[in-house]
Amino acid sequence: MSIEYTEPHTIVISLDVKDLEVAEKFYTEILGFKRGWDKAVDFGWLEIDVTKGLTLGLNLKKEGDIVHGSTTVNFGVKSAENTKKYLEGKGVNTLEIQELPGMVKMVISFDPDGNMIVFVESLVEE
C-alpha cells in the first residue's frame, strides 16, 4: 500500500498573513504571480498560483496568531544580483547576497508579514 497522489501533483504552501490585500499585492504585483482560487476570501483564504501544481495559500490570521519566520519559501532565479536590484527598486528590503561557492547565491527578503522569501541562483554547472 502507498499514498495515491493526485496527478499532476498539487502542492500548497500555507502562509499566515495579517492582511490579504497587502499580501496579494506583494505576491502578484511585486513578485509577478497570479491570483488563484479566491472563493474563500470571506473566510480568510486566498490562493496565489506560482506554477502548475504549486500554490501559495494566504491564510488570514490575527497579528498575535502569526508566527513570523515559521515558513520559508525559496524561488529559483537566473540572477541573484538582478533580483536584489529589482526587489529593492520595489521597496522590498533584502539582506546581502549570500554565496555558497560553486553551489548557490541567495537573496533573502521578507514578505509584508515577515515570512522569509529566498531567491536562489544555482551556480552548479550542468
Description:
The structure is a single chain. The chain contains 2 helices and 8 strands, in the order E-H-E-E-E-E-H-E-E-E. It is of the alpha/beta class and 126 residues long. The protein has a 4-stranded mixed beta sheet with strand order 1-4-3-2, with helices on one face. It has a 4-stranded mixed beta sheet with strand order 5-8-7-6, with helices on one face. A hairpin with a 2-residue loop joins strand 3 and strand 4. The mean pLDDT is 90.
Defining key terms:
alpha/beta, four-stranded mixed β-sheet, 126 residues, 17% helix, globular, single chain, 8 strands
The multimeric state of the shown protein is single chain
State the order of secondary-structure elements, H for helix, E for strand: EHEEEEHEEE
- Main sheet record: 4 strands, mixed
Under CATH, the homologous superfamily reads 2,3-Dihydroxybiphenyl 1,2-Dioxygenase, domain 1
Count of individual beta strands? 8
Topology, please?
Layout: E1 11-17, H1 20-30, E2 34-35, E3 45-51, E4 54-60, E5 72-76, H2 80-89, E6 98-100, E7 104-110, E8 116-122
Parallel strand pairs: 1-4, 5-8
Antiparallel strand pairs: 2-3, 3-4, 6-7, 7-8
Summarize the structure.
The protein has two helices and eight strands.
